[in-house]
Amino acid sequence: xxxxxxxxxxxxxxxxxxxxxxxxxxxxxxxxxxxxxxxxxxxxxxxxxxxxxxxxxxxxxxxxxxxxxxxxxxxxxxxxxxxxxxxxxxxxxxxxxxxxxxxxxxxxxxxxxxxxxxxxxxxxxxxxxxxxxxxxxxxxxxxxxxxxxxxxxxxxxxxxxxxxxxxxxxxxxxxxxxxxxxxxxxxxxxxxxxxxxxxxxxxxxxxxxxxxxxxxxxxxxxxxxxxxxxxxxxxxxxxxxxxxxxxxxxxxxxxxxxxxxxxxxxxxxxxxxxxxxxxxxxxxxxxxxxxxxxxxxxxxxxxxxxxxxxxxxxxxxxxxxxxxxxxxxxxxxxxxxxxxxxxxxxxxxxxxxxxxxxxxxxxxxxxxxxxxxxxxxxxxxxxxxxxxxxxxxxxxxxxxxxxxxxxxxxxxxxxxxxxxxxxxxxxxxxxxxxxxxxxxxxxxxxxxxxxxxxxxxxxxxxxxxxxxxxxxxxxxxxxxxxxxxxxxxxxxxxxxxxxxxxxxxxxxxxxxxxxxxxxxxxxxxxxxxxxxxxxxxxxxxxxxxxxxxxxxxxxxxxxxxxxxxxxx
Amino acid sequence: xxxxxxxxxxxxxxxxxxxxxxxxxxxxxxxxxxxxxxxxxxxxxxxxxxxxxxxxxxxxxxxxxxxxxxxxxxxxxxxxxxxxxxxxxxxxxxxxxxxxxxxxxxxxxxxxxxxxxxxxxxxxxxxxxxxxxxxxxxxxxxxxxxxxxxxxxxxxxxxxxxxxxxxxxxxxxxxxxxxxxxxxxxxxxxxxxxxxxxxxxxxxxxxxxxxxxxxxxxxxxxxxxxxxxxxxxxxxxxxxxxxxxxxxxxxxxxxxxxxxxxxxxxxxxxxxxxxxxxxxxxxxxxxxxxxxxxxxxxxxxxxxxxxxxxxxxxxxxxxx
Lengths: 568, 320
Prior knowledge:
The complex is a heterodimer of chains A (568) and B (320).
Chain A: E1 22-31, E2 34-44, E3 49-53, H1 60-66, E4 75-78, E5 81-84, E6 87-88, H2 94-100, E7 105-108, H3 112-115, H4 122-132, H5 141-151, H6 157-161, H7 170-182, E8 188-192, H8 200-215, E9 219-224, H9 227-233, E10 236-241, E11 244-250, H10 251-256, H11 261-268, E12 307-317, E13 323-334, E14 339-343, H12 350-357, E15 365-370, E16 373-374, H13 380-384, E17 390-393, H14 407-414, H15 423-436, H16 453-465, E18 471-475, H17 483-500, E19 503-508, H18 511-517, E20 520-525, E21 528-533, H19 535-539, H20 545-553
Parallel strand pairs in A: 3-9, 3-10, 7-8, 8-9, 14-19, 14-20, 17-18, 18-19
Antiparallel strand pairs in A: 1-2, 1-4, 1-5, 5-6, 10-11, 12-13, 12-15, 15-16, 20-21
Chain B: H1 8-38, H2 44-53, H3 61-71, H4 77-90, H5 103-136, H6 140-155, H7 159-173, H8 186-215, H9 218-225, H10 230-242, H11 244-267, H12 273-282, H13 286-314
């Protein structure tokens, strides 16, 4: 990578000139006549990091891809200036663009697992970039691939280069992807949500790698919806919404003292230990209709747990004949009106714990009790009558809806016939549920596919509430949402808990969300609970080394803007 | 990688399983063919004698006795079945009623022609299909739409009609190819095209769907962002994924090609198993029919085993 003596741009016109590495003025992008980016301007100084922040649909990714001529099929891109390393790229044809891609701008996509060809070894993907740009002769390619992997902090590069993405961990995949983007030694790295699919500790390592690249003099354009990632790396921040730049400035100013209400709301929406008991979204509380007579008499009013687990153990067989202990001696108790947070990285056993609590999976050892009565270890027919007492909201509600059903059908299906014997009563119940989760009754006629992410998650919550449960298991229920939508859903969950005394078993990889919501937290690693307690005592300071790493890797916005928050 | 792994015993077990089920398929086909012989209406010895003499008349037991003894018709059905199966194991497919020669001799004379036709057909179909899909898939609404429309039209062409049209246009009209006979590879072009064009359309339909899905995948965008050209992306990344579905269909296509050979060999007056089969069915020469059925089953099983071995080369995530 340190090919200081070699210049790959011999012609005078191509020679790097002083000035910003990327300059964009009045960029407009339209698809089929519909403009999605409305004249934005920005510049990235050499050796600095420019962050473009925005929620889905803000036009941030399309803008970044316009820099390499891949805004998308049928995109019409116009700009007064579009310069990469002093080179005017407007009106470039496919051949010219190919010399920009990889050579001048290295582009890193999110989710390396699907951004690398799943049937090819990662070494070949990196070698492809070397071949395309003729970086090294064929004979030197293998050595260069290993060097690139080593530079991207991939251990055992000889072994890794021969492995396919599916055989590597998410973090190693992302590093390999970054190595392939760096192959032709580009001056500019565009990273589009480079850490979104990663566990927090891995996320920190990848961010560190990007920071190293910046220190080595490369220009980074970081695209992200995650303000804590941005706070860690950016020198200059551009906040986008609806295809326009809402606010821009030095990172410290935009994140620390934002001028625009939109940026303030965005920052306010980030959950964390400091936001407990506060509303995250500017939206007012949904006026809750009076609850119709509850089926059960106030459960757990005597202080006994509504859901309790003792010594849960679950093994899964591995393809090579061995066994994987997914859950190892996990116990907890959950009281009415409280939230138990379970935090851990992928593969830590938190989702299996949730499935055991729901009795969707049977434990190899240990037991689960619901309302003090046996819940695990029963035949399903003995459980069925009590299923309504515990319900679930999953990460991706869309796949849990029948796509051919309307929202009303989805909800009617979940309303128990025993409690609401007539069709009219069931319809009334659905109307009541929709109002509770703050949805417009007009969505009832629509199909899940036509709803926004936040609306879908509200429908999923309404469905979970339909049988009038005492316990709701929320498995990564807000992880796929934009931060402002996530804030609204978290506020809704708090409102519902207070109104109905619900108990939440809240599973998440996101420490911020967990510490915002939970009364008690289990930290899981490799199937075991490594630490537990109240979120504040747990995270300041954590006793367990793993929790310490987890907390350290959580990039907080150190200086949160002082804002008037609407307290519930 | 040639590392010795604990997976090796599982590899052997998996292939033993595949070979076992291949044997079961052939055995099943052989058994059904045998039962069909038993179920033939009328006395078989009479049929054989009439077939040989070209007359149709009642025969006396004295006349029938040598035939019954020769073919073992006088023995019980299970005994005949057992003899038939042990014959198959020795590679003995029986004796033709009409020609009074071993079935294998009759069939093996015709086999090379049909094998050449089937092989050329499969190759042509793949080449045409790949070229067409690479050229038209994922090229926007208009070109992609045209590509898909041509797939559908090709896939729905009836072979007997296509054969006649090709013959009229390229042999009679333009005179590029011999009408009948001819020598060398030239004479196989039109018959193979007759079978390959509908097959190419059929394979292209499944390839195109997958091809266009893979073109949308992030790893394809990633390759473009690296600076790879469009053709390189299509050849190096997309094709490999999209080729899996038509590969599976090729096993099935082999069976279809052999039955298609019946039509093509008649239209183009070629020697081959197809015509032999038609003649044998017409003259009720059942051992020939049975022999061809068993051989087709063997060919079908073999090509599927070959495909099983090919999958992991295309997609290493599939365990061999």
